[in-house]
C-alpha cells in the first residue's frame, strides 16, 4: 500500500493528496496516517508546501466524511424503525437505543464529531449517524474540518520531522488496523451472545 500511496502523491501532488484523503474516508483501510505523513516528508524535501498540503488534505477528509453524512441524511432515522424492529437483534439495539443516540447527537453532536476525528475507524463511522440524526450540514462540515485540520497538522508534522523513517508507519498501521477489527469482531460476537432486549418500545 505504501508504494501505491507514494506513486499517487508524487504523480498527482496536492490533487493526489486530496483524492487519497477522500478515498481514505470512504474506504477506511487506506490510512490517513500514511497519506499525510508522506505529504509531510515531501514538505521536508522541499517538494511540497505545508499550507496547500493541509488545505488539500483537510478538504479531502471533509468531503469523504460528507459522503457518509449524506447517506445517513437521505436514509433518515425514521426509516430505521422497520429495520430496527426486524433486524435489531443482529445489531443488538432496540428502538429506545436509537432514540437515546438521537438525543445525544441533539445535545452534543458537534463535540462527538470533533472528538472522534482523532480516533481510528470511528472518525469515519461517526459521519453516518450524524446524518441519520439530522445534525446540521454546516455544523457537521465545520466541526469535521476543524478536527481534520488538527489531525492533519499532527500527521504532516510527524512526517516532516521523522523524514523517510515515517514510511515505516505502514508496518505498524496495517497490523494495528487488523487488531482493531479483530477486537471489534470479538466484542460484537460477545454482545450478540449475551444481549437480551428489554422489551421496551417507545412510540
Automatic annotation (TrEMBL):
Pfam families: VTT_dom. It is a multi-pass membrane protein. Residues 30-160 form the VTT domain. The chain crosses the membrane at residues 12-30, 50-71, 111-133, 140-160, 172-190. The keyword Coiled coil does not apply. It comes from Sphingobium subterraneum. This is Membrane protein DedA with SNARE-associated domain. Its main location: membrane. It is found in: Cell membrane. InterPro entries: DedA_domain, VTT_dom. It comes from the Bacteria. Keywords: Cell membrane, Membrane, Transmembrane, Transmembrane helix. One of its GO terms (cellular component) is plasma membrane.
Amino acid at each position: 500500500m505504501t508504494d501505491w500511496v507514494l506513486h499517487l502523491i508524487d504523480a498527482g501532488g496536492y490533487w493526489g493528496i486530496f483524492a487519497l484523503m477522500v478515498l481514505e474516508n470512504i474506504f477506511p483501510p487506506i490510512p490517513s496516517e500514511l497519506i499525510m505523513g508522506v505529504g509531510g516528508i515531501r514538505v521536508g524535501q522541499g517538494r511540497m508546501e505545508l499550507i496547500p498540503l493541509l488545505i488539500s488534505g483537510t478538504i479531502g477528509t471533509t468531503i469523504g466524511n460528507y459522503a457518509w453524512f449524506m447517506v445517513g441524511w437521505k436514509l433518515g432515522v425514521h426509516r430505521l424503525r422497520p429495520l430496527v424492529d426486524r433486524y435489531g437483534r443482529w445489531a443488538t439495539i432496540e428502538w429506545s437505543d436509537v432514540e437515546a443516540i438521537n438525543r445525544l447527537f441533539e445535545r452534543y453532536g458537534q463535540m462527538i464529531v470533533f472528538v472522534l476525528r482523532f480516533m481510528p475507524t470511528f472518525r469515519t463511522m461517526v459521519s453516518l449517524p450524524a446524518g441519520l440524526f439530522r445534525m446540521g450540514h454546516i455544523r457537521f462540515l465545520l466541526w469535521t474540518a476543524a478536527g481534520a485540520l488538527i489531525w492533519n497538522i499532527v500527521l504532516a508534522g510527524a512526517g516532516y520531522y521523522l523524514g523517510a523513517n515515517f514510511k515505516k508507519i505502514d508496518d505498524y498501521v496495517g497490523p494495528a488496523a487488523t487488531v482493531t477489527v479483530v477486537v471489534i469482531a470479538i466484542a460484537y460476537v460477545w454482545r450478540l451472545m449475551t444481549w437480551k432486549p428489554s422489551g421496551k418500545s417507545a412510540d
